[in-house]
Write a structure and sequence with these properties.
The protein has 328 residues and is α/β, with parallel strands linked by helices. The protein has two domains: 148 residues, Isopropylmalate Dehydrogenase (3-Layer(aba) Sandwich); 141 residues, Isopropylmalate Dehydrogenase, CATH 3.40.718.10. It contains eleven helices and eleven strands. An eleven-stranded mixed sheet has the order 3-2-1-4-11-10-5-6-9-7-8, sandwiched between helices.
């Protein structure tokens, strides 16, 4: 990595915080290309850091107070906890001290902190979260993955534009194929939301290929698959659970260390992969799985580096404005 960026990591975010975030920061710093700011309870984070050889590594602890946890109302909790680890992490980006923030904590809190602290792209009503999560379709972005459980057709159009930019920048696809997830491939199939979103996508300059069904996610039929966050999050957790259940079933017959069992476990292991950027926020914020491993956190830092190198946020802002302008 040629450029060196400063990345703020929410050390208190995630199921195994601050242990995994601290180790993830150490791994990222050892790989090079990043100066890491670990944001969290100073005593706890420092205790974890002392467990690792950090001599010469560009890691600094930034103190915070409080954590916004799953189940809390994100906006209210951020107001009540203005010095929480996620608020401070995003605040470092706002102040220009950090180039990006990474958190495996509450997705709702991460999104709220991003919106409140950094603001949304012009013309965008809600931010969104998307990216690849199925190992059988490693280059297919599914969007939304849970940020917006209720979405208007016009929002699905915006999400499609953001997803297409991500595919173009991150996977190098010149004209990403955009599809709408529905219960049938025909134009008239689907609920009211998908039926109304279809003509909006069809009239846009996006490379819209129509509807696809759930089983076609694994067939390389589209580069961006658009759905609301309710469907996307159910899909994410279903594939994760299916892989775990299939691996458990086969391990009884073949043994837990069998190659086939290990491969099945990797098919939908979201916790083993890097997080994804929040789309539509005026700054780079990477949100990941609460069960993310230290390797996944280090990979999220690497992802942030790539997004910064390619000016993902700036390009998304331009591309979204063009699509919104077409539909006005």
């Amino acid at each position: 990595m040629s450029n060196t960026y400063t990345i703020a990591i929410d050390a208190m975010g995630g199921d195994d915080a601050p242990g995994w975030p601290v180790l993830g920061a150490v791994l990222a710093a050892r790989e090079g290309g990043a100066r890491v700011l670990l944001v969290g309870d100073q005593a706890e984070v420092s205790t974890e850091l002392a467990k690792h050889d950090t001599v010469g590594l560009p890691i600094e602890v930034v103190p915070s107070e409080g954590v916004v946890v799953e189940g809390e109302n994100p906006a209210r909790s951020l107001l009540a906890k203005p010095k929480s680890s996620i608020a401070v992490s995003v605040g470092l980006v706002k102040k220009g001290i950090a180039n990006a923030a990474v958190s495996m904590g509450s997705t709702g809190a991460t999104m709220a902190a991003g919106v409140i602290g950094l603001g949304l792209f012009p013309g965008l009503e809600r931010p969104t979260l998307g990216g690849p999560f199925i190992a059988l379709a490693p280059h297919t972005t599914i969007i939304d993955l849970g940020a917006n459980v209720d979405s208007k057709p016009s929002q699905l159009l915006s999400f499609a534009a953001l997803g297409a930019t991500f595919e173009h920048i991150y996977h190098g696809i010149e004209s990403p194929r955009v599809a709408l997830l529905s219960v049938g491939s025909e134009e008239g199939k689907g609920n009211r939301q998908t039926k109304e979103a279809f003509p909006l996508l069809q009239k846009s300059s996006l490379n819209f290929i129509g509807n696809i069904e759930g089983h076609e996610l694994f067939m390389d039929k589209a580069d961006v698959v658009v759905c609301d966050g309710f469907v996307g999050n159910v899909l994410l957790k279903f594939t994760e659970g299916l892989a775990q259940a299939a691996a458990a079933f086969l391990s009884k017959a073949m043994g837990a260390d069998a190659l086939a069992v290990q491969q099945i476990r990797s098919l939908a292991g979201a916790a083993e992969h890097a997080g994804g950027p929040l789309f539509g926020i005026n700054g780079l914020v990477i949100a990941g799985h609460g069960r993310a491993s230290s390797e996944a956190i280090a990979a999220s830092v690497k992802l942030a580096h790539s997004c910064l190198d390619n000016d993902l946020i700036g390009q998304m802002r331009l591309d979204l404005a063009a699509v919104i302008g077409e539909s006005a």
